[in-house]
Amino acid sequence: MLQEIWYTFIDFVRTFGALQLFFVRLLVNSPSIIMRRGGLVVKQIHNAGALSLVIIMVCGFFVGGVLGLQGYSNLSKFNAEDSVGTFAAFSLLKELGPVITALLFAGRAGTALASEIGLMKATDQLSAMEMMAINPLRRVLVPRFLGGAISMPLLAAVFSVVGLFGAHIVAVNLLGVDQGAFWQQIQSTLEISDINEGIIKSIVFGIVASLLAVWEGYNAVPTAEGVGRATTRSVVISAISVLILDFMITASFI
Amino acid sequence: MQQTRSVELGTGLFVLLGLAALFFLTTQTTGSDSFSGDETYTVTARFQNVGSLKDRAPVAMSGVTIGRVTSVKFDPEALDAEVTFVIDSRYNQIPDDSDASILTAGLLGSQYIGLQAGGSEFYLEEGSEIQFTQSAIVIENLISKYLFKSGDGAE
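ok -> structure tokens follow
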């Protein structure tokens, strides 16, 4: 029993170490891919970023709208409904923007990455590349990782801005909060460090979610069941890592 | 070829949109400072009580931000607080007998230094000290004063 736990633990540490090494290999290969095969990265930014735009914008709008409603109904008890903009901006820029975008990103783009790479492995496409002396890590994994990592901060920024407009529409246009007060309160309370916190979070989450998706796909058991499992694992592990990292980054900023 | 073009176009639009969003967040949602702080001169003032005045708090005259607080220190010899702040060099004609008070922006807002012009013919310059200061209003003191007063009135 104890021995089993010990072996599980050792196994976990070993996988964790392998993931770090994998990450370093991706990073080492990144500059030359960006320089020489930029087109591959552009295509992946399109897949991971541009195609996720609609879901991000729709979700952002409604999350912002809910913040406007909730903020208004609670703040109006203290006659402080002018602060609803600050409330929405703080929530969106520091927490909900990066976190929800990362979760949606893991669900929309991460699963696509993991299953695509897993299926390539299951159908021996990766081995075929190796036979042709093409390094699949450089040709397949690095562009996908970079595409995801570059797209995520941009998506998070779009999410936050659309969310702010959602909150604006609900609070100002529907509930009658003064428009000047809405923006003025945001501008006087929000500081550049708050925005930096959100940007740093979205960069970290983008790297983590893309890394885990690519890693799970690359290490999938090359069967139909294995690919499905890898896809599920990439979402689950990304979500857990993102939320744990969110706690750690927030704590480090306070 | 046609497909590559549309992919590139879509990606370009997406990246531009993302960057525009980042730009919006960094410029439109944070307070735009009228105070640039390129060339400044340093002035000090001593207060009995600075309340919750912090570094980088604005220094305002007639409601316009003209400077920033750079340090708030306790002076162990004079037993009061020494506040150092910089004022934009464009505003170099502030009378040296102006008085500085610590005010609060709004009911629960952050604190700032408000300058009130005096009548002197000499101006504040690098290193000068403001003689007339008014401390921050501490709400507990106000309440206790009020309580004492009403107590006296009842007698």
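Chain A has one domain: 39-253.
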